[in-house]
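Sorry, can you check?
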Amino acid sequence: MDTSNPSAFVNAELLPNFIGKKVRAVVQVHQSDGGVAIGKSTDGSQLTVKGLPQVPAMNYIEVIGIAESNQLINAEIWTDFGNTFDTDSYNKLCQLANGEFRSLFL
């Protein structure tokens, strides 16, 4: 496993702390035009992801990419999780990975 360039677990609230760095987020797609997707982060806020193919509306995707701004991720890798996903658990993971248990994550 390559640990030279880890990605931080983030939601929309945490994204501004990682501008210019590699991040990992889950977004529920609300609109996609084959290149740019707009959706809802696990904390309920809007995020935009560029660099994606057409993604079905209401599907959850995990994206790994570079945080370009407070609400924009440029995707390098993405995974379609389908239309069911436990957003509360993922959001809590983001909070733990950037808080009390930061040392346990890369």
